[in-house]
Amino acid sequence: MLKVSGLSTGYGKLQILRGIDLNVAEGGIVTLLGGNGTGKSTFLKALSGLLPVWEGSIEFDGQKIQNLPPHEIVRCGLTQVTQGKDAYPAMTVEENLKLGAYVRKDKIAIAEDLERVYSFFPRLLERRTQLAATLSGGEVQMLVIGRGLMARPKLLMLDEPSAALAPKIIMDIFATINRIRKSGVSILMVEQNVRMALLLAEYGYIIRDGVILIKGDAKDLINDPNVKKSFLGGTVANSTHEIKA
After folding, report:
1. What would the DSSP string read from start to end of 141-178?
2. Whose CA is closest to 243, among 209, 199, 207, 211?
3. CB neighbour list of residue 220: distance below 8 Å, 6 or more residues apart
4. Does the N-terminal or the C-terminal CB of the chain have fewer CB atoms within 10 Å?
């Protein structure tokens, strides 16, 4: 579905990413892992058309999309949920969700997708008329994921969905991400929470200083001695635990 080959980019004259190769198969969950400043968000910005691709290619559903305008990339079926959890505080929950369908004209299908989002996030249904400013951090994360789904993506890109959330909320969010995948939406998830991401994903890439250091099946990475030592504090507690929808 998504094939990234030799991707290099950065800001101004500062190069951040160097020759990134990454694939996402249809119907799967792939995670890109690493600490702050390693290039994870920069990678998503390049995929979304928010940064120019200096070298390499991005192929999505058989079409080269590197350097297309962001709205055209969304129309292709590739949607990013940003790390900043950018909800519009003076708008209601439902108004925020409908903004996610801004490139669409199919009103009946948009209404169907709105109900689908509420089925994934019943708490948003309860708060549909509330201003986004009144929501908790976990509810805002639900809102921005739901807004991303309103574009009806084939591939949903999530930037740090667990950031600054309580452990119970993180488990709920990850379980819902699994449900979204089972509904037919492929997932590319950028995360710092290495353990949780590898429990959810099928394949993982670990990035440092703009270069992919390690890649492989998630079940293998979570038990890899190098990954344990460098990214998991030397242990992998509950590595056989499943995140269930």
Report:
1. HHHHHHHHHTT--SEEEEE-TTTT--HHHHHHHHHHHH
2. 199
3. none
4. C
CB 98 within 8 A of CB 92: no
| Contacts of 167 by beta carbon, 8 Å cutoff, 6+ apart | none
**Rounded Cα–Cα distance for residues 129 and 149 (Å):** 19
Tell me the three-class secondary structure of 74-126, residue by residue.
HHHCEEEECCCCCCCCCCEHHHHHHHCCCCCCCHHHHHHHHHHHHHHCHHHHH
* Closest-CA residue to 162 (of 197, 119, 122, 208): 197
Tokens linked to 178 = 């699994």
CB 60 within 8 A of CB 155: yes
Mean pLDDT, the chain, rounded, equals 92
- The encoded tokens of residue 241 equal 């635990």
Q: How confident is the model at residue 245 (pLDDT cuts 50, 70, 90)?
A: low
The DSSP letter of residue 238 is T
Q: How many helices (H) and strands (E) does the chain have?
A: 10, 10
179 with 120: CB under 8 angstroms?
yes
Q: Which domains does the chain have, with CATH numbers?
A: 1-77+155-163+186-245 (3.40.50.300), 78-152 (no CATH)
* pLDDT confidence of residue 244: 62
Distance CA 236, CA 245 (A): 22
Question: Quick one: pLDDT at residue 138?
Answer: 93
Which pLDDT band, with edges at 50, 70 and 90, does 192 fall under? Answer: confident
